[in-house]
Amino acid sequence: MNDIEEMERETDYRVPALQRGLSILGMFSARERILSMSDMAERLGVSSSAVYRIVQTLVDMGYLRRVGRNAFELGTRVISDGFSYLASRDIVEVSMPHLNALRDRTSLSCHLSIRDQTDSLYLYRALAPQRLTVNIPVGTRLPCHSTAMGRMLLTGLDELELAQLYHNVRLDDYPLPAPRTLPELQQLIARDREQGQVVHRSDYSTAIATAIYDHQGQVVAAINLSGPDAVMTTPFAQEQFLKSLLATRDSISGELGSL
């Protein structure tokens, strides 16, 4: 297959409506904050009717916002998604060297996660070089209320926000020691918030987690140390590991602007 045939084949896989939708979003800039549907159609070289459904879909999804009868600006979805991505990327870049150093000091695995609704989403792991280790891949989602890092992520919410988040979530489907009711969850998270860390045992392993804070004092992520019970269960070991974990928390939070 020659280069021309290869290019034609790749073109066949394109989705014209998606391509036009992304092109429309790319038309907005600091100089041009508001565009009409006819502006979009003219720049795409198509009729207004050809972009009507695309624009309406972008409005319905929050990527565009109608500001007049035939005028649109970028919607909050673009801004929130963009800042969420940048914040997550910054957190990983800032946290990575600190978690690697923590792993080297303790010989335990370290993980970093953020909250996505009721899930704890794993963004980074520093894997310990020992045979018995806790290894949770990047991209894994685990229920917040049943994990150490997840519970620390939930400490960023107050009692009302917790109730709203878990309004339609069944908690009694999860095995103990996960909380089984909303009041139980609220009490647990209040205690976690006061203590500033969570120790959680499961499947012959133990995890110690704490929260990461940004320049506004908001919980933006969580980190943990995790390893086999044989290493983690003695009070002295837990005390030393917790001390190292909290020092790492302070270093990462400090780079994010937390006082």
The chain-level mean pLDDT equals 86
Tally the helices: 10
Q: What is the count of distinct domains?
A: 2
CATH-defined superfamily of the largest domain: GAF domain
Overall geometry comes to: elongated
Say what the CATH topology of the largest domain is. Answer: Beta-Lactamase
Q: Kindly estimate the percentage of residues that lie in beta strands according to DSSP.
A: 15-25%
Total beta strand runs = 9
Pfam families: HTH_IclR, IclR_C
Domain IclR-ED: 77-258
Organism: Pseudomonas benzenivorans
Keywords: DNA-binding, Transcription, Transcription regulation
What do these coordinates show?
This protein is α+β, with helices and mostly antiparallel strands. The protein has two domains: 3-74, Arc Repressor Mutant, subunit A (Orthogonal Bundle), CATH 1.10.10; 82-255, Beta-Lactamase (2-Layer Sandwich). It is 49% helix and 21% strand. The protein has ten helices and nine strands. The strands form two sheets. Strands 6-5-4-9-8-7 form a six-stranded antiparallel β-sheet, with helices on both faces. Strands 1-3-2 form a three-stranded antiparallel β-sheet. A hairpin with a 2-residue loop joins strand 4 and strand 5. Helix 3 crosses helix 4 (48-60). The radius of gyration is 24 Å and the shape is elongated. The model has no long low-confidence stretch (mean pLDDT 86). This is IclR family transcriptional regulator.
Secondary-structure topology with pairs:
Blueprint: H1 3-12, H2 16-27, E1 35-36, H3 37-44, H4 48-60, E2 64-68, E3 71-74, H5 76-106, E4 109-116, E5 119-126, E6 141-143, H6 148-154, H7 159-165, H8 182-195, E7 198-202, E8 205-213, E9 219-228, H9 229-232, H10 235-255
Antiparallel strand pairs: 1-3, 2-3, 4-5, 4-9, 5-6, 7-8, 8-9
Helix pairs in contact: 2-4, 3-4, 5-10
